[in-house]
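Following the same procedure, sequence and fold were stored together, as reproduced here.

>
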Amino acid sequence: MTDFTAEAEAIFRRIAAHQKLNIARESETPDEVMFLLSSIDPSHQAVTLGLQNGDELCFGVDGFRSYFFPFGEIKGVFEKAVAGWFTGQTRLAYYWRGKRLVKIYLQVKLKNGKWQRIYTEYKTWFLPFLALRTEFKTGT
C-alpha cells in the first residue's frame, strides 16, 4: 500500500497557509500523523487534520470526526471541504431527537446555493432517521 503522508501534510500546510492559520503537528505514530490548525482569533475553533493508515484522511472539529478514503480518490473533495470550513462553504448539520444528538452531516455548499452531504457521523444506531430538530454550524 502507498503511504500518502508527505502529500497529506502538503495539503494540510496549503490549507493553513491559504487561510492564514497556525499549524502544529499534534502526534505521529507509525499509523497516524495529526495536525492542529488554529487561528489567532479565539472565536474560531481549532481543527484537527490527520492521515491514518497511510491513506485515510481525517477532519475533526468540536466533537465531530470524519474519515475519508482512499486518499487518491478523495483528496480533492477533502481539501475543498476543509478549506470551505474556514470560509462558510462547509458546515455541520446537527440532527436532534429531543435532547439526544442523533447524527451530524458534513455538508458543502454547491454553486446553486444548495447544501450537499459528503459525510455522516451517526451518534446513535437507534432510529437515527427520526431526527426532529436541526442546527447548523460553520467555522466562520
Observations:
- The longest helix spans residues 5-19.
